[in-house]
Design goal:
- This protein is an alpha/beta fold and 282 residues long.
- It has two domains: 6-100 and 186-278, Rossmann fold (3-Layer(aba) Sandwich); 102-182, Alpha-Beta Plaits, CATH 3.30.70.
- Helices cover 36% and strands 22% of the residues.
- The chain has helices at residues 6-15, 44-54, 69-76, 101-123, 145-160, 188-195, 212-220, 243-258; strands spanning 20-24, 59-64, 82-85, 90-93, 96-99, 128-132, 135-139, 169-173, 177-182, 201-206, 224-228, 238-240, 275-278.
- The strands form two sheets. It has a nine-stranded mixed β-sheet with strand order 12-11-10-1-2-3-4-5-13, sandwiched between helices. A four-stranded antiparallel β-sheet has the order 6-7-9-8, covered by helices on one side.
- A hairpin with a 2-residue loop joins β4 and β5 (96-99).
- The structure holds the ligand O=P(O)(O)OC[C@H]1O[C@H](O[C@H]2O[C@H](CO)[C@@H](O)[C@H](O)[C@H]2O)[C@H](O)[C@@H](O)[C@@H]1O.
- Ligand L263DTV3 binds at residues 25-28, 33-37, 40, 65-67, 130, 132, 137, 139, 141, 174-177, 179, 208, 210.
- This is Trehalose 6-phosphate phosphatase.
- InterPro entries: HAD-like_sf (IPR036412), HAD-SF_hydro_IIB (IPR006379), HAD_sf (IPR023214), OTSB-like (IPR044651), Trehalose_PPase (IPR003337).
- It catalyses: alpha,alpha-trehalose 6-phosphate + H2O = alpha,alpha-trehalose + phosphate.
- Its EC number is 3.1.3.12.
């Protein structure tokens, strides 16, 4: 195995005695990109690998996603993991939650944003808006590249027209969707800071523009950042060509640290009912 392989490096750190925190993006990293969000289902073998790694005595596993917290938690289906949804604004670890106050501020203006976006969405059939706590994804995957460029321009203009009556927005293109949140809202970097754990070797893997802050946060901790595919943030320390290669590394890591026991193991049952313990300052 080459020395720059992320799974080999993570296994070596764990074997050397360091706690290991593995944080992964969901869409495009743990699952292949699909035509619609509902079709991006986690393969059972990937779930087994995550469950096996999370059961190790000095390891924690988290999924940090642009999806809503409920959606990512349900799709992954492992109560023992750490989760962040809404691009880092809504964080869940064990029985505890942290919520960015910007989430509620955004929700108070979300209807106005949806109204503003209704005109470009009507003009470009195939586009649609996914409403999530604290943010929106304006999807345009079904459009050809020139139509997508036209749609993005119109959607950005529609949002910009709200400017005098609306707090500043953060609008960025993430895997064929415009992600819209309040400027200054928590990002995946904030989620990394809350989920990483003290003294752990932190590994983060992601594939898109909304992973930039997580990559910066993990690099700042001296951790291991893995870019999945060509659109991964430029600052990653290691790269894999695509989602298949990333999952192959995940299986190698699980096999190396957990042995054959990870395949077909029953998943931990039980439902954790989270309670809110912290609403951070903006
Ligand atoms: O941060 P992530 O976990 O990567 O989530 C980013 C967005 O993922 C979803 O949309 C993207 O994946 C869909 C399924 O593969 C695809 O159909 C869509 O075109 C992509 O934009 C999700 O729907 C969004 O809420 C997430 O922000």
């Amino acid at each position: 195995m080459p020395a720059h392989d992320w799974a080999t490096a993570a296994a070596a750190g764990y074997r050397a005695g360091r706690p290991l925190t593995l944080l992964f993006d969901y869409d495009g990293t743990l699952t292949p990109i699909a035509a619609l969000p509902a079709l991006a289902v986690l393969p059972p073998a990937t779930r087994d690998a995550l469950a096996g790694l999370a059961a190790l005595p000095r390891a924690a596993v988290g999924v940090v996603s642009g999806r809503s917290l409920d959606s990512v938690r349900e799709l992954v289906g492992l109560p023992g993991l750490r989760y962040a949804g809404s691009g880092g604004m809504h964080i869940s670890f064990g029985a505890e939650e942290a919520i960015d106050p910007a989430l509620a501020e955004f929700d108070a203006i979300a209807d106005a944003l949806l109204t503003a976006l209704s005109s470009p969405v009507k003009s470009f059939p195939g586009t649609w808006v996914e409403r999530k706590p604290g943010c929106l994804s304006v999807h345009y995957r079904q459009l050809t590249p020139p139509r997508a460029a036209g749609f993005v321009e119109e959607a950005r203009e529609a949002l910009a027209e709200l400017a005098p009556d609306c707090p500043p927005l953060r609008v960025r293109a993430v895997t064929q969707a415009l992600e819209v949140a309040l400027a200054g809202a928590w990002t995946k970097g904030d989620a990394v800071d809350r989920l990483a754990g003290v003294d752990a070797l932190v590994v983060f893997a992601g594939d898109g523009a909304n992973d930039e802050e997580a990559v910066a946060a993990v690099n700042a901790r001296g951790g291991l950042t893995v870019g999945v595919g060509p659109e991964a943030p430029a600052a990653v320390r290691l790269r894999v060509a695509d989602q298949n290669e990333f999952v192959a590394g995940l299986h190698r890591l699980a096999a190396s640290l957990c042995g054959a026991a990870v395949v077909g193991r029953p998943h931990p049952g039980g439902v954790v009912t989270p309670r809110v313990i912290h609403q951070g300052a903006r």
